[in-house]
UniProtKB/TrEMBL annotation:
The chain holds residues 313 to 557 of 557 of the full protein. Belongs to the peptidase S1 family. Snake venom subfamily. Residues 1-244 form the Peptidase S1 domain. It is found in: Secreted. It comes from the Eukaryota. Disulfide bonds join 32-48, 40-109, 134-203, 166-182, 193-221. The active site is at residues 47, 96, 197. This is Plasminogen activator.
Amino acid sequence: IKGGLYADISSHPWQAAIFARYQRVPGEHFLCGGILIKSCWVLSAAHCFQDRFSANRLKIVLGRTYRVTPAESEQQFQVEKYILHGKFDPDTYDNDIALLQLKSRSQKCATETDTVRAACLPEPGLQLPDWTECEVSGYGKHEEFSPFYSEQLKEGHVRLFPASRCSSQHLANQSVTKNMLCAGDTRQLDDACKGDSGGPLVCTKDDRMHLIGIISWGIGCGQDLPGVYTNVSRYLSWIQDNMKP
Ligand code: 4AZ
């Protein structure tokens, strides 16, 4: 997160950290953010999995504030399988959504605690007003060209941009589809950045935070351009269908 504030995982208990082990590279590497949506299911961005890792090389950590420092009460999971959207386009990042099933010996995987809790999905057809204040969180870089990811979870405050300001014209001629939404800080301070991908954009509706976007892409971080998010409301059926046993 560029700008923003350091945060505790208890303020973003749906935030997941996804790690990968590469063939012939020792150790585990931070890969992307994710979002717990059900005890055994995490959403993320399809582009995080373009290296086509086998599921057994992935690890999901819930309940952790410091990116690489285990928390006493954290919950770790291996991945049973992951599903990328069949129409994910690696050139435009259209349909940048992935669903990961956590491995467990029972029906339950994550246990609800102060630091681990599933995010609410929006009701079908939910359209929040332009400029609604939302928050974005992640363990990604503080600046585009920083060599390091953040050592602690951060949160940023961004507003939903009107569709009229979320087109290829506004984003360096990159393709922008209806499956994407834009959010940014009108003060140009807070924004998602590299390594935050796959993580949550949540907005309050009826006194509850709802998952509105998945961090997907942008032109730099915290410049004069908004970040681009996968528009979760367009995938509610895809999510339900793919969570079926
Ligand atoms: C990235 O590379 C990335 N400023 C994610 C979000 C944004 C830029 C880059 C938005 O993962």
